[in-house]
Design goal:
This protein is mainly alpha-helical and 207 residues long. It has a domain at 54-188. It has eight helices and two strands, in the order ααααβαααβα. Strands 1-2 form a two-stranded antiparallel ribbon. The longest helix is centred in the N-terminal third of the chain and has 33 residues, at 3-35. The radius of gyration is 26 Å and the shape is globular.
Protein backbone atom coordinates (compact mmCIF):
# COMPACT_ATOMS: atom_id res chain seq x y z
CA UNK A 1 0.00 0.00 0.00
CA UNK A 2 1.39 3.39 -0.98
CA UNK A 3 2.07 6.21 1.49
CA UNK A 4 -0.41 8.49 -0.32
CA UNK A 5 -3.35 6.12 0.32
CA UNK A 6 -2.42 5.93 4.04
CA UNK A 7 -2.46 9.71 4.29
CA UNK A 8 -5.93 9.83 2.75
CA UNK A 9 -7.39 7.36 5.28
CA UNK A 10 -6.12 9.12 8.39
CA UNK A 11 -8.34 12.23 8.06
CA UNK A 12 -11.41 9.97 7.62
CA UNK A 13 -10.67 8.13 10.86
CA UNK A 14 -10.22 11.39 12.76
CA UNK A 15 -13.45 12.85 11.39
CA UNK A 16 -15.42 9.73 12.39
CA UNK A 17 -14.05 9.93 15.91
CA UNK A 18 -14.87 13.61 16.18
CA UNK A 19 -18.42 12.97 14.99
CA UNK A 20 -18.98 10.25 17.60
CA UNK A 21 -17.66 12.55 20.33
CA UNK A 22 -19.95 15.33 19.13
CA UNK A 23 -22.96 12.98 19.19
CA UNK A 24 -22.15 11.84 22.71
CA UNK A 25 -21.72 15.45 23.84
CA UNK A 26 -25.06 16.50 22.32
CA UNK A 27 -26.82 13.59 24.03
CA UNK A 28 -25.23 14.53 27.35
CA UNK A 29 -26.31 18.14 26.88
CA UNK A 30 -29.89 17.10 26.15
CA UNK A 31 -29.98 14.83 29.21
CA UNK A 32 -28.59 17.50 31.51
CA UNK A 33 -30.97 20.06 30.04
CA UNK A 34 -34.05 17.99 30.87
CA UNK A 35 -33.08 17.19 34.45
CA UNK A 36 -31.33 20.35 35.57
CA UNK A 37 -33.43 22.91 37.43
CA UNK A 38 -32.83 26.65 37.24
CA UNK A 39 -30.30 27.87 39.77
CA UNK A 40 -31.52 30.10 42.57
CA UNK A 41 -29.98 33.52 42.81
CA UNK A 42 -28.38 34.76 45.99
CA UNK A 43 -30.70 36.71 48.26
CA UNK A 44 -34.50 36.50 48.45
CA UNK A 45 -35.99 34.26 45.78
CA UNK A 46 -38.12 36.08 43.22
CA UNK A 47 -40.50 33.72 41.42
CA UNK A 48 -41.68 34.33 37.85
CA UNK A 49 -45.26 35.58 37.73
CA UNK A 50 -46.69 32.64 35.80
CA UNK A 51 -50.10 32.29 37.44
CA UNK A 52 -51.02 28.72 38.36
CA UNK A 53 -54.20 27.36 36.84
CA UNK A 54 -57.18 25.93 38.77
CA UNK A 55 -56.31 22.30 37.99
CA UNK A 56 -52.86 22.61 39.51
CA UNK A 57 -54.27 24.30 42.61
CA UNK A 58 -56.88 21.56 42.92
CA UNK A 59 -54.06 19.03 42.68
CA UNK A 60 -52.25 20.75 45.57
CA UNK A 61 -55.45 20.91 47.66
CA UNK A 62 -56.12 17.20 47.06
CA UNK A 63 -52.65 16.30 48.33
CA UNK A 64 -53.03 18.50 51.42
CA UNK A 65 -56.49 17.08 52.13
CA UNK A 66 -55.22 13.52 51.77
CA UNK A 67 -52.27 14.16 54.10
CA UNK A 68 -54.54 15.74 56.73
CA UNK A 69 -56.93 12.78 56.59
CA UNK A 70 -54.02 10.38 57.01
CA UNK A 71 -52.79 12.32 60.04
CA UNK A 72 -56.26 12.45 61.61
CA UNK A 73 -56.95 8.74 61.15
CA UNK A 74 -53.49 7.86 62.46
CA UNK A 75 -53.56 10.09 65.56
CA UNK A 76 -57.25 10.32 66.57
CA UNK A 77 -57.68 6.70 67.80
CA UNK A 78 -54.58 6.93 70.01
CA UNK A 79 -55.24 10.49 71.22
CA UNK A 80 -58.27 9.53 73.38
CA UNK A 81 -60.07 12.78 72.61
CA UNK A 82 -57.06 15.03 73.12
CA UNK A 83 -56.88 15.70 69.36
CA UNK A 84 -59.49 15.78 66.59
CA UNK A 85 -62.62 15.68 68.73
CA UNK A 86 -65.35 18.09 69.85
CA UNK A 87 -63.53 18.67 73.14
CA UNK A 88 -60.21 19.41 71.43
CA UNK A 89 -61.09 22.48 69.36
CA UNK A 90 -58.09 24.59 70.53
CA UNK A 91 -55.62 21.80 69.76
CA UNK A 92 -57.20 21.23 66.35
CA UNK A 93 -56.99 24.94 65.52
CA UNK A 94 -53.30 24.93 66.42
CA UNK A 95 -52.76 21.90 64.19
CA UNK A 96 -54.42 23.49 61.16
CA UNK A 97 -52.63 26.76 61.91
CA UNK A 98 -49.33 24.94 61.87
CA UNK A 99 -50.12 22.99 58.70
CA UNK A 100 -51.42 25.82 56.50
CA UNK A 101 -50.33 29.18 57.88
CA UNK A 102 -46.79 28.67 59.18
CA UNK A 103 -45.43 26.96 56.01
CA UNK A 104 -47.12 29.58 53.82
CA UNK A 105 -45.64 32.43 55.87
CA UNK A 106 -42.11 30.98 55.79
CA UNK A 107 -41.90 29.17 52.43
CA UNK A 108 -45.03 30.31 50.59
CA UNK A 109 -46.32 26.76 50.19
CA UNK A 110 -47.87 23.81 51.99
CA UNK A 111 -46.70 20.24 51.32
CA UNK A 112 -49.40 19.95 48.65
CA UNK A 113 -48.23 23.09 46.89
CA UNK A 114 -44.63 21.86 47.07
CA UNK A 115 -45.56 18.63 45.28
CA UNK A 116 -47.71 20.50 42.74
CA UNK A 117 -44.87 22.93 42.04
CA UNK A 118 -46.67 26.14 42.97
CA UNK A 119 -46.02 28.86 45.53
CA UNK A 120 -47.86 31.80 47.10
CA UNK A 121 -46.16 35.15 46.43
CA UNK A 122 -46.81 38.85 46.82
CA UNK A 123 -46.91 41.42 44.01
CA UNK A 124 -43.09 41.43 43.91
CA UNK A 125 -42.86 37.68 43.30
CA UNK A 126 -41.52 36.90 46.78
CA UNK A 127 -42.99 34.72 49.53
CA UNK A 128 -45.80 36.65 51.27
CA UNK A 129 -44.55 36.50 54.86
CA UNK A 130 -47.14 37.82 57.35
CA UNK A 131 -49.57 38.55 54.48
CA UNK A 132 -50.27 34.81 54.45
CA UNK A 133 -52.04 35.08 57.83
CA UNK A 134 -55.03 37.16 56.62
CA UNK A 135 -55.03 35.10 53.42
CA UNK A 136 -55.41 31.79 55.21
CA UNK A 137 -57.56 32.91 58.14
CA UNK A 138 -59.80 35.75 56.96
CA UNK A 139 -59.66 35.36 53.18
CA UNK A 140 -60.40 31.66 53.03
CA UNK A 141 -63.09 31.97 55.71
CA UNK A 142 -64.88 34.58 53.58
CA UNK A 143 -64.34 32.56 50.40
CA UNK A 144 -65.82 29.37 51.83
CA UNK A 145 -68.57 31.23 53.68
CA UNK A 146 -69.88 32.59 50.38
CA UNK A 147 -70.77 29.05 49.25
CA UNK A 148 -67.27 28.61 47.86
CA UNK A 149 -67.72 31.38 45.29
CA UNK A 150 -64.52 33.07 46.48
CA UNK A 151 -62.56 29.91 45.71
CA UNK A 152 -64.13 29.29 42.29
CA UNK A 153 -63.54 32.94 41.41
CA UNK A 154 -59.96 32.12 40.46
CA UNK A 155 -61.27 30.22 37.42
CA UNK A 156 -62.59 33.49 35.96
CA UNK A 157 -59.94 35.87 37.21
CA UNK A 158 -57.24 36.83 34.64
CA UNK A 159 -54.54 36.55 37.32
CA UNK A 160 -56.03 33.40 38.88
CA UNK A 161 -56.77 35.11 42.18
CA UNK A 162 -59.46 33.88 44.53
CA UNK A 163 -61.09 36.23 47.02
CA UNK A 164 -58.57 35.18 49.66
CA UNK A 165 -55.75 36.18 47.30
CA UNK A 166 -57.35 39.54 46.57
CA UNK A 167 -57.89 40.23 50.28
CA UNK A 168 -54.22 39.57 51.06
CA UNK A 169 -52.75 40.84 47.77
CA UNK A 170 -51.20 37.46 46.97
CA UNK A 171 -50.84 35.31 43.86
CA UNK A 172 -50.23 31.61 43.28
CA UNK A 173 -47.54 31.07 40.65
CA UNK A 174 -45.39 28.35 39.17
CA UNK A 175 -42.38 27.32 41.25
CA UNK A 176 -39.55 26.25 38.92
CA UNK A 177 -37.41 25.22 41.92
CA UNK A 178 -39.93 22.76 43.35
CA UNK A 179 -38.99 19.15 43.93
CA UNK A 180 -42.36 17.64 43.02
CA UNK A 181 -42.78 15.11 40.17
CA UNK A 182 -42.34 17.00 36.90
CA UNK A 183 -44.68 14.82 34.83
CA UNK A 184 -47.58 15.55 37.22
CA UNK A 185 -46.83 19.27 37.22
CA UNK A 186 -46.81 19.30 33.42
CA UNK A 187 -50.07 17.33 33.27
CA UNK A 188 -51.92 19.83 35.47
CA UNK A 189 -50.59 22.94 33.70
CA UNK A 190 -54.04 23.64 32.31
CA UNK A 191 -55.38 27.17 32.39
CA UNK A 192 -52.16 28.80 33.53
CA UNK A 193 -51.63 32.41 32.59
CA UNK A 194 -48.65 34.70 32.25
CA UNK A 195 -48.73 38.46 32.91
CA UNK A 196 -48.68 39.14 29.15
CA UNK A 197 -50.79 36.28 27.90
CA UNK A 198 -51.89 36.42 24.25
CA UNK A 199 -55.52 36.19 25.30
CA UNK A 200 -55.10 39.33 27.41
CA UNK A 201 -53.57 41.44 24.65
CA UNK A 202 -55.81 43.94 22.95
CA UNK A 203 -55.95 43.91 19.14
CA UNK A 204 -53.85 46.55 17.42
CA UNK A 205 -56.05 49.36 16.12
CA UNK A 206 -53.58 50.14 13.33
CA UNK A 207 -54.02 46.75 11.69
Amino acid sequence: MSSESKKRRKPRQRSTGSRSKADLQSKADKTSGTTKKPDKRSGPTVYPMNFAGPMRRLYAFTIDFGLIMMIIYAIAPAANGVMFSQEAAPQDIIFFFGYFIIPTVIWGRTPGKWVAGIVVVDSEGQTPGPAAIPREMIGKFVSYLAAGIGIFWLMLDPKRQGWHDKIAGTYVVDNPYSGGPQFMKDFFKIGEKKPRDKSDKKPNSDS
